[in-house]
Design goal:
The protein is an alpha/beta fold. It folds into three domains: 227 residues, Rossmann fold (3-Layer(aba) Sandwich); 109 residues, Rossmann fold, CATH 3.40.50.1100; 43 residues, no CATH class. Helix content is 38%, strand content 13%. A six-stranded mixed sheet has the order 4-5-13-10-11-12, with helices on both faces.
């Protein structure tokens, strides 16, 4: 839709100009630092950072109704920089000019309601938000679009020359980082560190295809992260893990989109997210807090983080009901089918602690919970979800298992409506499905395949035929017709089909 066709009172706001006064804030010493350099931790005390806006209060000069109208009208623009997560430009990174924003098709992923059978199986109404339909097939594209747009801005305004982006990953981060870096290939090169043997072949192929330098090292994600942190502290690199606060800003768009999908009515809503490095739940909390602070939504939804019993440090922290007695302890993870969440020392844990406190103060009641699920529940729930028309990854299965757990524990009510984060596309984790069906999953996962959930192809070789079609060797017409009829009848027998009445045999 063309600008001159929009209502007069909204037209001048549709295409935003750079604004705001963003800065890094340390979560420990409360130090403030400007954005002229790439900072990941506080130069003074080493704690992680959040990005805040000194001019945030100016956004409150407009009521929530204005912002709802603005975002809804802005959807109709055909300006690439505003078609992705930066549709919510003022709430994410208002300092960035539109010319520096990267848009590869990320954001605005569908919110798909569970069918009647699945809703009945769970016991309440719920939706999956399919973030696997982002360009690199995971939610990580949201953060990368923001982080690499900022890098693009720095390169243009400060003449940085060639920049090396680097990250540790369980698969999805590396795919997103390599993809968005490749878009800036003239000025940005990419390197990723992966735990050897802990990433699916599908995920490994993505950064390789985008031209990144891929390094596999012994250990798990936490070990890779330590190496990347060492590199970021001593060399000129752009760290793209969620330790990068720009990643968190981009991922807040998930909350904005969920709210928009329900016409900004979040009363009685519950949002479930898997917890890995804790960046995602940090962003979800921050996003909904912003919406409520500006009056764009009237209610804060419940937020439920989900962790596997094989990687559950955040669950253990919040299991202590007395906040004064809570002590965070990193753990040694065990193998998990929810590989993206297999992290024992989440980088964003200090952010989670701060934002949970802020979120519940605004809510006025307990509104953030963490539940634990088994590996068996994760795999079974992924398969059950996808047998009912979804494309959930193992982390999506983790969320579904978490919803059932939360409902059984009384954290969620049957009259509420839940939104589950399917963080990646099921095809990224298809190997786990294949091993489940074959019954040869690694015993370390502690998953026993259920017979009713197994599936495998059936090879049909109709009896009574002497020859069959083969590549480059077609059958004569009469033999081919006999092959078609015999094969169709064999399949009909297997499926117990009834022949139509009145049809000549």
């Amino acid at each position: 839709m063309r600008l001159d066709e929009f209502p007069d009172d909204i037209r001048s706001y549709l295409v935003p100009r750079p604004s705001g006064d963003l800065f890094y804030r340390c979560l420990q010493c409360e130090g403030e630092f400007d954005l002229t350099s790439l900072l990941y931790t506080c130069p003074g005390c080493g704690q992680v950072l959040l990005i805040e806006d000194r001019q945030w209060a100016h956004l409150k000069e407009h009521p929530g109704t204005f912002w709802r109208r603005l975002f809804d009208y802005r959807r109709m623009l055909n300006i690439p920089a505003l078609k992705g997560i930066f549709l919510f430009h003022e709430l994410i990174a208002p300092v960035l000019p539109l010319e520096d924003i990267i848009y590869l098709g990320e954001g605005h992923t569908p919110v798909v309601r569970a069918n009647e059978s699945l809703r009945r199986w769970v016991g309440m109404d719920f939706f999956f938000k399919n973030d696997g339909q982002n360009p690199s097939a995971s939610f990580k594209d949201r953060g990368m679009a923001c982080a690499l747009s900022y890098v693009s801005y720095l390169i243009r305004t400060q003449g940085l020359g060639e920049v090396l982006s680097i990250c540790a990953s369980t698969g999805d981060t590396s795919a997103a980082a390599a993809l968005y870096s490749a878009y800036l290939s003239k000025t940005v090169k990419s390197a990723v560190l992966l735990p050897h043997g802990k990433v699916t072949p599908q995920q490994l192929s993505q950064p390789l295809g985008s031209g990144a330098r891929v390094f596999e090292i012994p250990g798990v994600f936490d070990d890779c992260m330590k190496v990347v942190e060492y590199l970021a502290e001593r060399y000129q690199v752009a760290l793209l893990n969620s330790k990068n606060a720009w990643r968190i800003l981009g991922q807040e768009s998930y909350s904005f989109e969920v709210a928009a999908s329900f016409d900004y009515d979040m009363k009685g809503k519950v949002v479930l997210v898997p917890i890995g490095n804790a960046g995602n739940i940090t962003a979800v909390l921050g996003g909904f807090w912003k919406l409520r602070d500006l009056g764009i939504i009237d209610y804060l939804p419940k937020i439920i983080g989900v962790q596997s019993e094989h990687a559950d440090p955040v669950y253990r922290y919040y299991r202590e009901s007395n906040p004064a007695k809570r002590v965070f302890r990193a753990i040694t993870v065990r193998p998990s089918v929810a590989q993206a969440a297999m992290i024992g020392n989440p980088v964003s844990m200090p952010r989670v602690i701060r934002l949970v406190e802020t979120y519940e103060q605004m809510s006025g009641e307990p509104a953030v919970f963490v539940v634990q699920v088994t590996e068996q529940e994760i795999m079974d729930c992924q398969l059950i979800a996808n047998r009912n028309g979804h494309i959930a990854c193992t982390q999506g299965g983790e969320c579904l298992a978490g919803l059932r757990q939360a409902l059984a524990a009384g954290i969620v009510r049957q009259d509420e409506v839940a939104v589950l984060d399917a963080t990646a596309h099921t095809l990224k984790f298809v190997g786990f499905q294949e091993h489940y069906f074959a019954g040869d999953l690694d015993p370390a996962y502690r998953v026993i395949p259920r017979a009713e959930l197994k599936n495998s192809p059936s090879f049909v070789r109709a009896p009574g035929l002497k020859r069959f079609p083969a590549s480059g060797q077609p059958l004569p017409a009469d033999e081919f017709q006999a092959f078609v009829e015999a094969t169709a009848k064999e399949i009909a027998r297997e499926l117990r089909l009834q022949e139509r009445r009145g049809r000549d045999s």
